[in-house]
């Protein structure tokens, strides 16, 4: 991934292993994905020891569906509730 401004955080965990697994599944489906440490100098650090699963913003919705199929809930809380 080369253009950081076009990336979105899909999920954040203290353990990078599940994020790496999901990143591999996403890559197998044609979605560029990468796992970054939270202290990457180009990103605002949120907390120590946290890993971030990054995807292109244009792919974020499809990536959420793929991640959910693998068992990682990446949907924001407000999207999980009932409409209206």
The string of secondary-structure elements, in order, is: EHEEHH
| CATH superfamily caption | UreE, C-terminal domain
Radius of gyration: 13 Å
Q: Report the sheet-strand fraction.
A: 15-25%
The computed structural class is: alpha+beta
Number of strands: 3
| Tally of alpha and pi helices | 3
Envelope shape: globular
Distance between the termini: 37 Å
- What do the pLDDT scores average to? 82
**Remind me, CATH topology?**
Alpha-Beta Plaits
The helicity comes to 25-40%
What is the CATH architecture term? 2-Layer Sandwich
Stretches where pLDDT falls below 50 for ≥5 residues?
none
Q: What's the story with the biggest beta sheet?
A: 3 strands, antiparallel
Describe this structure in words.
The protein is an alpha+beta fold and 84 residues long. It has one domain (4-76): Alpha-Beta Plaits (2-Layer Sandwich). 33% of the residues lie in helices and 21% in strands. The protein has a three-stranded antiparallel sheet, covered by helices on one side. The model has no long low-confidence stretch (mean pLDDT 82).
């Amino acid at each position: 991934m080369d253009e950081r401004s076009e990336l979105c955080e899909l999920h954040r965990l203290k353990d990078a292993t599940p994020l790496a697994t999901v990143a591999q599944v996403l890559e197998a489906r044609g979605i560029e994905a990468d796992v970054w440490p939270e202290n990457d100098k180009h990103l605002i650090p949120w907390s120590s020891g946290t890993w971030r699963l990054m995807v292109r913003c244009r792919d974020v919705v499809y990536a959420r569906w793929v991640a959910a199929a693998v068992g990682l809930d990446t949907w924001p809380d407000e999207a999980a509730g009932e409409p209206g």
